[in-house]
Design a protein that fits this description.
The protein is an alpha/beta fold. About 45% of the residues lie in helices and about 15% in strands. The chain is built from eleven helices and nine strands.
Length: about 280
């Protein structure tokens, strides 16, 4: 089923994608990469469908948070060797520079869409999380892992730069420049314990609990002031290239906008009445 972009036509409760699984429970959506026999690799088509989904989520008022996970004990093994890497090599051999650039721009558009959608994205990572899979986790807002997760930005191992889909911009901000450089240059795997210690994972969970904990975290966020959460996400993204004075002014404007929401008043009156606030995202 195609994803419409017209605000009035999107029914995310009924929508069924072609290249991964989608479920919506309450206000939390779960994306499951579902090719477990190959450790959930991406294809040209799944890249594009994920990109279109995250673009459309801008209009999804009913979806307040998103969880990404993989089936069969692995997160995502990256681009499918036979369905992506092989065709790209044939493009290179044919001198199809435009085709290669079209592909790399399309994959980068997926990360742009993830960062631009207002929903907080939580990745539940177990097992293999490599290449483009590591990028999906990196581009999420929060990441839960397991001790057995293996995250690898392995582009150097296939003769490519670590500069892929925004990795050289985003990963150093999460774990630091030196650590990111080591992963890019060596292509080695980072296990879950190291990933948590370096700040890539927010916390580690048991393998049989990581998805449930990610969904519980997403639910707690979805039950919060989601308009304000979207503003926080926007500021976190936009302020990367701002000086401190510009950032302070941007946050002053953002906070003044949030103060105009009913959620701000709901929090005040709940505090005054010694009860828990019930937010509505407006």
């Amino acid at each position: 089923m195609a994803l419409p972009h017209d605000r009035g036509r999107i029914d995310f409760a009924a929508w069924q994608p072609t290249h991964f699984l989608w479920s919506l429970h309450g206000k939390v959506a779960t994306i499951t990469l579902n090719r477990p026999e190959r450790k959930n690799p991406l294809t040209f088509e799944s890249y594009a469908e994920l990109r279109d989904l995250f673009r459309a989520l801008v209009y999804a008022d009913a979806v307040k948070a998103v969880v990404i996970t993989g089936a069969g004990g692995n997160f995502c093994s990256g681009g499918d060797v036979h369905e992506i890497i092989g065709p790209l090599v044939r493009m290179q051999e044919a001198g199809d520079t435009q085709g290669l650039l079209d592909f790399t721009r399309m994959t980068g558009d997926l990360v742009k869409a993830m960062r631009a959608c207002p929903q907080v994205i939580v990745s539940a990572v177990d097992g293999v999380c490599a290449g483009a899979g590591a990028i999906l986790a990196m581009a999420s807002d929060l990441r839960l892992g397991t001790a057995g997760s293996k995250t690898a930005f392995l582009f150097a191992r296939v003769g490519l730069a670590g500069a892929d889909m925004g990795a050289c911009n985003i990963l150093p901000r999460i774990i630091g420049v030196g650590r990111a450089a080591e992963l890019f240059y060596t292509g080695r795997s980072m296990d879950g314990v190291e990933g948590e210690r370096w700040g890539f994972f927010n916390r580690l969970c048991a393998p049989d609990a990581v998805l449930a904990e990610a969904q519980a975290l997403a639910t707690s966020i979805a039950d919060g002031p989601t308009f304000a959460h979207a503003m926080t996400k926007r500021c976190l993204h936009q302020e990367w290239d701002m000086d401190i004075d510009s950032a302070i002014e941007a946050e002053a404007q953002a906070q003044a906008i949030c103060m105009q929401t009913k959620d701000f008043g709901r929090a005040f009156y709940a505090f005054s009445e010694r009860r828990k606030p019930v937010f509505a995202g407006n």
